[in-house]
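Ops channel
N.P.: pipeline sanity check, posting one input/output pair.
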């Protein structure tokens, strides 16, 4: 599972670089595991040149089955029963009812990704299908994502829609006092700042320094200490960018960390 995690980290940074091209100061929020697992599901039905372009084994994984098995194991690990956090990762296939899908593709999608097929009438009732898909996404994200698919995004020519939904809610291991929240200036770049509400607390947290990126990395643990948030803070901003360009340039998962006491 470690090779998959490393590969997914590299994928997430490359995708982040692509998404932020042309506007490096805007906010970007996305789930790499949702995107990579969705692409992995698509690869189950790919053959020939398409499969060759999509399939690139992570180091230590030599077959497609190993990759799909690793995704299955990773998702099972993330959705531990009785965990002190809520993490829902759900997949669903919506297929045109008159279309004959390859049985192996459906079986593999169900086995590896728990993605069942729901038959819908895209040809005559595409709008109703779109509404149903949006309702499923809204339900599986606890109402956080509404109207994922806009009007006219699905029509009579649609044959298959692959949907992934992820939801996470956790509590900090070290809680921030509400009365310690204050207004501070947040640096958008070297020149611009914006007033925002910032949480505050004094405690001991894992802190590291990455020399190649001239950045600090702070780890905030969630209750249970199985999951955490990593916050990257550049020590200085040299131009009108956010200062995180070096994060895009370096392979973050292969950087050497210097622990700060």
């Amino acid at each position: 599972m470690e090779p998959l995690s490393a590969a997914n980290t590299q994928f997430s940074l490359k995708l982040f670089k692509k998404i932020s091209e042309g506007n490096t100061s805007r906010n970007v929020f996305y789930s790499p595991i949702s995107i990579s697992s969705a692409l992995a599901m698509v690869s189950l039905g790919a053959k020939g040149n398409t499969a060759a372009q999509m399939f690139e084994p992570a180091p230590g994984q030599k077959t497609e089955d190993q990759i799909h098995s690793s995704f299955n194991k990773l998702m099972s690990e993330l959705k531990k029963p009785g965990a002190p956090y809520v993490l829902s990762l759900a997949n669903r296939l919506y297929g045109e009812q008159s279309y004959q899908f390859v049985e192996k593709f459906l079986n593999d999608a169900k086995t590896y990704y728990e993605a069942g097929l729901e038959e819908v009438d895209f040809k005559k009732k595409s709008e109703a299908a779109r509404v149903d898909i949006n309702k499923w996404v809204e339900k599986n994200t606890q109402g956080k994502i509404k109207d994922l698919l806009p009007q006219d995004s699905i029509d009579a020519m649609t044959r298959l829609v692959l949907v992934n939904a992820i939801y996470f809610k956790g509590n900090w291991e070290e809680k921030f006092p509400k009365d310690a929240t204050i207004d501070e200036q947040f640096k958008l770049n070297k020149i611009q700042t914006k007033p925002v509400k910032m949480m505050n607390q004094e405690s001991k947290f894992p802190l590291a320094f990455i020399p190649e990126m001239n950045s600090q990395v702070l780890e905030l643990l969630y209750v249970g200490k199985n999951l955490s948030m990593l916050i990257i803070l550049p020590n200085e901003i040299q131009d009108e960018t956010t200062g995180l360009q070096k994060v895009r340039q370096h392979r973050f998962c292969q950087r050497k960390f210097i622990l700060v006491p």
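N.P.: looks fine end to end. Residues 251-257 have pLDDT under 50 and may be disordered.
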